[in-house]
Amino acid sequence: MKVCICDDEEIFIQGFEKLLRKYVKETNLKFEFITFAGGNELLSYCNIDNDIDILFLDIRMKLSNGIDVAQKIRNRDGNIIIIFLTSLSQYSLSGYKVKAFDYMIKPISYNLFKEVMTSAIVEATRSKEKCLVVKNTEGIFKLCLIEITYLETYNRNVQIHLQSGKKVIGYLKMKEYENILDDSFYRCHSSYIVNMRYITSIEKNNVNMNIGTQIPVSRYRRKKFEDAFTNFLGNSFNL
Question: 38: helix, coil or strand?
Fold first, then answer.
């Protein structure tokens, strides 16, 4: 599992590394740990190696805004668990729009770090383990739910769209997929099921996905869909 911290205070990063080393010693878990001194450095890395599992990100840095950096990362990857670091609790609410997992107020105690880190690991592991097995004429595909952006009706079958851009045809009915998928998915239209991890906004009768796709929302489903999305955002950011 790859754990990263982005903070422009070298002294804080050194203290954070000590917390992580203590955690590793107690739990006997192994991590690949990477540090970034600023948002641009982090974004350059993500543009090449999109493999971060847990990211600790400072909200207020001299040359970049952590919220803006998180939004750019989230537009590319809905999987990264983002935990904000801040000196002021008022900034914690900003995490909603980028689906932050949690936030920690500086200075960070080891007990708080341990609690948040353990929860993040559980969530990261759980997200990776949830899969959907699809069998069609091309073969058998094991699809992690977190990789699925949306499903749509396609020539009497269902086309499953993945974050990578790949499409896989499934032969179950849309209602059957609706029952199989977890609470991150919602059927916003009779012909569409969306993964709420990848939603950027709901506007009028459409939902905008961070992959650049616009999906219709049924008028009679809109209110419940908006409520479900609001609840999803709240559950994604533990205040």
Answer: coil
CATH of domain 2-129: 3.40.50.2300
So what CATH class is 131-231?
mainly beta
Q: Are 99 and 78 in contact (CB under 8 A)?
A: yes
CA distance 139 to 122: 31
Q: Which amino acid, one-letter code, is at 47?
A: N
Domain locations in the chain? Answer: 2-129, 131-231
d(CA 79, CA 52): 9
Token reading at 121: 């690991």
pLDDT at 97: 62
Average pLDDT over residues 190-196: 96
Bridge-based pairing of strands 139-144 and 185-189 is unpaired
Check whether 58 has a pLDDT greater than 90.
yes
Is the torsion defined by CA of 20, 147, 133, 233 positive or negative? positive
Q: Are the C-beta atoms of residues 103 and 78 closer than 8 Å to each other?
A: no
Q: Which amino acid is at 195?
A: N
**Which ranges in the chain belong to alpha helices (H)?**
10-27, 39-48, 66-76, 110-129, 174-180, 222-236
91 — pLDDT class (breaks 50, 70, 90): low
How far apart CA 71 and CA 73 sit, in angstroms, is 5
Measured distance CA(35)–CA(42) in Å, rounded: 9
And the tokens for 234?
């709240």
Phi, psi dihedral angles at 129 (to 5 degrees): -80, -25
Read off the pTM: 0.61
Among 40, 47, 44, 51, residue whose Cα is nearest residue 4: 51
